[in-house]
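--- STAGE predict ---
source: upstream dedup step, 1 unique chain passed
mode: sequence only
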Amino acid sequence: MFVDQQNYFKLLNKTFMNVKNLEFLKEGLKYLGFGDKMNADLESKIKEQPTEFKLSLVGEFNKDNIKDRVNYTLDFKKSDQTDMYFLNRYQAALKNDDPTQEKTQTFYITKNSGITAKEAYNLLSGRAVNKDLNNKEGQPYNAWLQLDFQEKDKNDNYKVKQYHQGYGYDLEMVMSKYPIKEQLNGDEKSKLIKSLEKGNLVQVTFAREGGEDKMFIAANPQYKSLDLYNAKLEKQFQGIEKKEKPAEDKSQEKKETQKHDVDDEEGETKKGKKSSKRKGVGI
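--- STAGE serialize ---
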């Protein structure tokens, strides 16, 4: 009888741990932007108790009339010490009508934190993402991340370029050089900055003499600028910036040049600005 009680409590404890583990993984999937579409498959796999397993999902992202598709493959592995499962990494493959233009990258996850599904899409699209990270010693730091499509590492991943705070890219200051109507409103400006930091291609209104133009913008930390696109998503290079009023004893400064992209916000957990973001990890 005593042995049966022991087995019963062991089974009860294991069931409880599996439920807690399942909820933990579901929370991670939600935060990472994968939603709840894989929850049923996730629960089924955990009940089977394999050493490791994979789950797949196709994400679609719309840019104006253009639809991009990303195939995600998530790798789950059982702990060597316990029956707990963890999402350690996922592979994102950006599909294109031209197969030679398809791009694939593996992103690593630690304790449900890392590059989100939408951020992975933005990085594979060539845009930069701002993240709070930790170095090898566990010290936090902030940086803009961008994939280098000209070079790969030993794992066949694109190398990641990082632009730290000391690099001097001030997104808010850069935005002030452009006649972006949305930055005149505090709340709209805050939402715009957060969206750009996620690597989104964002539609804004450029105020001009005699009218307004719809433009798309994206952060460009490498050149300390914005990438600009017109309403047809054609890249713009000159004559877009807001003119500064010239001083009386100085000639008018030349206009600067910049460029960029846009996307809608995903259903991620929204936090405050940089200091209150969820921590990221190496990608």
